[in-house]
Amino acid sequence: MKLLPLCLALLAPTVLHAQYGVPDPSFGTAGVVMTRVGAPSGMEAMMAVAVGPDAKIYAAGKEGNEWTNEAVHVTLRYGSGLSASVQENAPAMPSAAPNPATDRITLRFAEAGMHQLLVLDARGRQVARHQARGQQVDVPLSDLVPGLYLLQDLARTWALRVVKE
After folding, report:
1. Rounded to an integer, what is the distance from CA 163 to the centroid of its chain?
2. Is 95-164 a domain of CATH 2.60.40.10?
């Protein structure tokens, strides 16, 4: 288990949440635990925290005063089955053909829909903008000078490099 450096105030409440964001009532007082470590010397510091393979959160720190410096180990528990990770679904990239192209390039999307497209030159300047509907979209390139371009959706969830010959 690797401890990650973290700076936390130990005088703040620790709130543990269940699966859907409500406090976990099986931990502490309705999911809220007031944590005070050490004497009121003001020398308390959380130095590291890690999530173990058993889904427990391990926190390590120190407390003391000008004469003492004691190690502190705190273990907090979450309900089983919770995850600290967030799954993000990457947008499907359209395919582009032909590439290089001379007068047009065809984009094929995984799903039909409304597509707002930007064409950017090698310096990142917008040189064209297109709006089309469907699963297959033809983007005209005939008005562009030969070079490298970037096709990008307006929401900037994907971008493709294309070459105009």
Report:
1. 31
2. yes
